[in-house]
């Protein structure tokens, strides 16, 4: 597979020229006035998601050059290599196949379209594992004696299931409460343990590696609490979701659901890591979640680049980061249940594309991952939108709105939709008729993602869309989006500092760490 780094393509230089000539000065208001087709040209239907891209700082000529950039850098071959099961996670020599977790079983009547033949056996394993997990989820759902499910995991082993269980709150079975413990800060676990009883609690220890110190510490404490409270049946009250079944057994957990090293932590909600979601919304709901994501996989895999939503979003990310030099992207879901969606996307983008060297280890001469941040609307409007409208930095905003609400309270939804439309409008239009403090420059870009309703299918599609757009920008940047060596150093240093906190030895420490350590021990 041939990948060419974006800055080594002819299109890169042409984009630079186009940016200087007209891109930098593009005015959205003028662009709309000049082209009555702008909304149509810059909107894109994808499975379960409609996207209005027209309020982005891009014209048709730039979009054509960006698509050229994608072709010249080998995006299609790279994408196809992922779907062929090549070891595109080169620094760990691993395949990248989270998409296989949502691929339907091969129908013997219809020779598979979406899966390479050599993967049939792996796909079979995926479905056997999925069936076992969904069967277990249904048993837990039917077990009225279990009232609390406590997921112990961090990073991808927490954010995915937590985000999805909260987002699909309307679909969650009554009679069960879901808790998520991630932080090694004992306050978090202690607060949950105060609310639950051993005989009615199921602890899910979620860890791909089963070595993560936070998760292991919390799991040990939960088990010690369970036994101290008189709990006996570990097999009934603890289950492990992990690729390291041996370590889970050694820990004393016999109920395990496995997955594979080709599922990255931040891409693992579709695997056994999704068990809390499967318990919450049931086997059928979880299948719909997978199906929505699969529809998006097929769109990404087969739609022409110019009508491919993940591609169009990923190209805008590159345009903004490397030509406009915007440093962040704000995500604003106008649905209160999408509370953890910004945090989920933060890990997805920043752990994947927060890299300073290319796949060969060469330092990059251009910027990669933007900072991703945000809060649900309308809350953000009363906190930081001031800066988005009138601050010195331009921050592209990505709105998510949902057409049909799941409640029947009169007035609320219209008001919510009016607000999200008005914010996008205000960012673009600004307000020129007042000077000084009341002046809004406008021309601030935004993307508008629209779902018909927030349900398991559309959430699956939305999350898969985000995974693939991160793939697209990472691919053009020439980096490996699937490793995360950057989290290792802190882990190693924490081990050293932990020992020093007990014995007080500050020899060889920098003066700041030593000073703080002495204060903490005093
Ligand atoms: O520290 C980073 C990380 O490896 C993430 O990529 C991952 O999602 C998280 O830690 C948790 O890892 P594990 O599931 O192995 O406990």
From TrEMBL:
One GO molecular-function entry: isomerase activity
Database matches in Gene3D superfamilies: 1.10.1390.10, Glucose-6-phosphate isomerase like protein, domain 1
Catalytic site: 351, 382, 491
Record keywords, A-Z: Cytoplasm, Gluconeogenesis, Glycolysis, Isomerase
Keyword NADP included in the entry's annotation: no
Keyword field contains Phosphoprotein: no
HAMAP family: G6P_isomerase (MF_00473)
Pfam families: PGI (PF00342)
Top EC class of this enzyme: isomerase
Chief site of localization: cytoplasm
InterPro entries: G6P_Isomerase (IPR001672), G6P_Isomerase_C (IPR023096), Phosphoglucose_isomerase_CS (IPR018189), SIS_dom_sf (IPR046348), SIS_PGI_1 (IPR035476), SIS_PGI_2 (IPR035482)
Name of the protein this chain belongs to: Glucose-6-phosphate isomerase
Family indicated by similarity: Belongs to the GPI family.
Locations listed in the record: Cytoplasm
Annotated function: Catalyzes the reversible isomerization of glucose-6-phosphate to fructose-6-phosphate.
Known EC number: 5.3.1.9
Known pathway: Carbohydrate biosynthesis; gluconeogenesis; Carbohydrate degradation; glycolysis; D-glyceraldehyde 3-phosphate and glycerone phosphate from D-glucose: step 2/4
Reaction(s) this enzyme catalyzes, per UniProt: alpha-D-glucose 6-phosphate = beta-D-fructose 6-phosphate
């Amino acid at each position: 597979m041939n990948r060419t780094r974006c800055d080594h393509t002819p299109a890169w230089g042409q984009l630079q020229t186009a940016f200087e000539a007209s891109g930098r000065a593009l005015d959205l208001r003028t662009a709309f006035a000049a082209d009555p087709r702008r909304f149509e040209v810059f909107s894109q239907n994808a499975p379960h998601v409609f996207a209005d891209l027209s309020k982005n700082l891009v014209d048709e000529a730039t979009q054509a050059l960006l698509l050229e950039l994608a072709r010249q850098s080998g995006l299609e071959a790279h994408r196809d290599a992922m779907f062929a099961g090549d070891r595109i996670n080169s620094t760990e020599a691993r395949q990248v196949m989270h998409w296989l977790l949502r691929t339907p079983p091969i129908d013997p009547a219809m020779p598979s379209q979406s899966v390479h033949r050599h993967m049939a056996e792996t796909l079979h394993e995926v479905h056997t594992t999925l069936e076992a997990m969904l069967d277990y989820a249904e048993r837990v759902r039917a077990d009225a004696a279990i009232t609390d499910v406590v997921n112990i995991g961090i990073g991808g082993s927490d954010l995915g299931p937590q985000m999805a269980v909260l987002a699909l709150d309307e679909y969650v079975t009554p009679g069960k409460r879901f808790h998520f413990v991630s932080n090694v800060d004992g306050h978090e676990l202690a607060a949950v343990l105060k609310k639950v009883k051993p005989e009615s609690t199921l602890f899910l220890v979620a860890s791909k590696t089963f070595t993560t110190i936070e998760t292991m510490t919390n799991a040990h404490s939960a088990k010690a609490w369970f036994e101290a409270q008189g709990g006996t049946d570990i097999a009934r009250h603890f289950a492990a979701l992990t690729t390291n079944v041996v370590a889970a057994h050694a820990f004393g957990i016999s109920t395990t659901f496995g997955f594979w090293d080709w599922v990255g932590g931040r891409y693992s909600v579709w695997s056994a890591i999704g068990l809390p979601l499967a318990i919450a919304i049931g086997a059928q709901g979880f299948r719909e979640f997978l199906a929505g994501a699969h529809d998006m996989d097929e769109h990404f895999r087969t739609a022409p680049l110019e009508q491919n939503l993940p591609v169009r979003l990923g190209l805008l990310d590159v345009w903004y980061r490397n030509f406009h030099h915007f440093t962040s992207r704000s995500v604003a879901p106008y649905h209160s249940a999408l509370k953890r969606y910004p945090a989920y996307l933060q890990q997805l983008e920043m752990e994947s594309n927060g890299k300073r060297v290319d796949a060969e280890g060469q330092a990059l001469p251009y910027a990669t991952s933007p900072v991703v941040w945000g809060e649900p609307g309308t809350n953000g409007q009363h906190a930081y939108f001031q800066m988005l409208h009138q601050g010195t930095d331009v921050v592209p905003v990505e709105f998510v709105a949902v057409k049909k609400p799941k409640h029947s309270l009169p007035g609320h939804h219209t008001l919510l939709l009016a607000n999200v439309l008005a914010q996008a409008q205000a960012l673009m239009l600004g307000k020129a008729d007042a000077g000084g403090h009341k002046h809004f420059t406008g021309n601030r870009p935004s993307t508008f993602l629209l779902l018909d309703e927030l349900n398991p299918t559309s959430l699956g599609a939305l999350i898969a869309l985000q995974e693939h757009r991160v793939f697209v920008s990472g691919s053009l940047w020439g980096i490996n989006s699937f490793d995360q060596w950057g989290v290792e150093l802190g882990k190693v240093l924490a081990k050293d500092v932990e020992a020093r906190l007990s014995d007080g030895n500050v020899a060889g420490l920098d003066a700041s760490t030593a000073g703080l350590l002495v204060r903490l021990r005093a």
